[in-house]
Design a protein that fits this description.
The structure is a homodimer.
Chain A (H helix, E strand, L loop, with lengths): L4 H4 L3 H14 L12 H8 L3 H13 L22 H5 L1 H7 L4 E12 L2 H7 L6 E11 L2 E10 L1 H9 L8 H6 L6 E10 L2 H7 L6 E10 L5 E9 L5 E7 L5 E4 L5
Helix pairs in contact in A: 2-4, 3-4
The structure holds a DNA duplex.
DNA sequence: CCGGCCAAGTTGGCCAGCCAACTTTCGGCG
DNA sequence: CGCCGAAAGTTGGCTGGCCAACTTGGCCGG
């Protein structure tokens, strides 16, 4: 699967968006320059203005351009937003940076879900889930501990994978398990004994935690994961704007 | 300014979106139920299908509903996405949680910008900037240290505010300084001596850091800020999907 | 009873057009 | 020279329509 989803689909507006994105990042419109008018772009690409507007909406959501009534769009930044899969898949992300991803399976157990897990994965109480613990490495050095809970349908497939499989999301996709929507929560926790042992840090030392709940196109949860990163190895980056915002700030209230 | 931007604008699609959002969060369509068809909604609200689609695009971006070709939309979650201003303004955010925000100005100095600041705020080398250091509190207890660099146009206004002003963004808005787009980067840092003194923690103890660069509608940077939160006081939450994604994961490479 | 095919329902995508709101520019006038 | 107003340019918003792609459920035949 190509890295850029804009290029994959046959949708016209994604093609236009991809082309504009490249023009922007290569500086064709200048550092803080202005884009051609919607009408001009429509004529240039041979599409309707509505299609151009769809393409520009993608760029605006990524924080590449501003847009307000009355003036041409202005280049905001020469973007770095990766594709959705680079965010979900550690493997994909690592490779896009030119690093060699690795994973060591520590444990994989099957047990009844606790009430909280049932709620998150939307399962009947007592359903069996698959709980995985993996140490993830970049070019051999440990950077992250991954604790993932899978519902049966997904866990059955993951359990069959070889223990040294680097990527789990890719085989899952081939089995028809699709990841399309994810909710992330990011905060700080202290390393517990297990974290410390696996990551080679001291117990109590700070880790960047990403909690993630992923669903498939039907809205069915397919994954509930807690990833704990060593400081200095990763940072999360988000763009938001008045036009549309998916980021929020929460008070923490336990796990 | 009302909390919900959907309600403020006269735009039809925002009104529809706000109404649908409420219907979803009050569970009118069920926990994981299905929405009425676009056509049905169009008739119900007396608008065209295109307008309904615009409204639904907002909900999809917020992670409230899925959408795929062939089936009705499905409720994903009963959302918690706040308005854009609740993310940018500590004051607004605190009040929406029922907490009493406070701020103590530690220092406000004017000095030439260093090269990195010039780059970020897009200023000529050597331009004078205003550097602010503030301790932010929730109901009296310190939770965050805020270090903000303002370009002259903005800094001049902030410098005139009383030292005990709780909110800075609100007065700025009244002076015509608008915050519309922001890039956030989230990671972990160790508290330095100053952080430790202000927050009452130990030097070297972990803090959740949010770096933020905010621009106005013209794309001109108006703020560059580093906020450092005590662990356990805040968490950041993001939704992303295959359809559109503004979140990304980065390798850290210094500040 | 099971499986496959077909039709209805639904969303994705694209087009053409219209008007309103807003910004910028430019020229005229004081 | 500077201010103000008009006009041109541009994006936001909304309508109505059309077809394609896809999902679902039911019908029919084996």
């Amino acid at each position: 699967m190509p890295a850029d989803p804009d290029r994959t689909a046959g949708a016209l507006y994604r093609t236009v968006a991809a082309d504009l994105r490249e023009s922007i990042t290569t500086g064709r419109f200048g550092e803080a320059g202005r884009l051609p008018a919607e009408g001009a772009l429509a004529e240039q690409y041979g599409v309707s203005r509505g299609t151009v507007r769809q393409a520009l909406a993608l760029l605006r959501a990524d924080g590449l351009v501003t847009s307000r009534r009355g003036t041409r769009r202005v280049v905001l930044g020469t973007a770095r937003v990766q594709s959705f899969s680079e965010l979900l898949s550690f493997t994909h992300w690592a490779r896009s940076m030119g690093e060699e991803p690795g994973g060591r399976l520590e444990s994989m157990v099957r047990r009844p879900a606790d009430p909280a897990e049932c709620e998150l994965l939307r399962l009947e109480p007592g359903t069996e889930v698959y709980v995985m613990l993996r140490l993830r490495t970049l070019s051999g050095t440990p950077v992250m501990v991954e604790r993932t809970v899978y519902p049966p349908r997904v866990g059955e497939i993951v359990a069959e994978l070889p223990a040294d499989a680097v990527s789990h999301t890719e085989p899952l996709r081939e089995h028809g398990i699709l990841f399309t929507d994810a909710d992330h929560t990011i905060d700080v926790v202290a390393a517990n004994t297990e974290d410390a042992r696996l990551l080679g840090c001291r117990r109590g030392s700070p880790l960047l935690r990403e909690k993630r709940r992923t669903t498939d196109p039907t809205g069915t949860p397919v994954e509930w994961s807690q990833d704990r990163y060593l400081p200095g190895t990763v940072a999360f980056s988000i763009h938001n704007s008045l036009a549309s915002s998916a980021l929020s700030r929460h008070a923490r209230d336990g796990d």
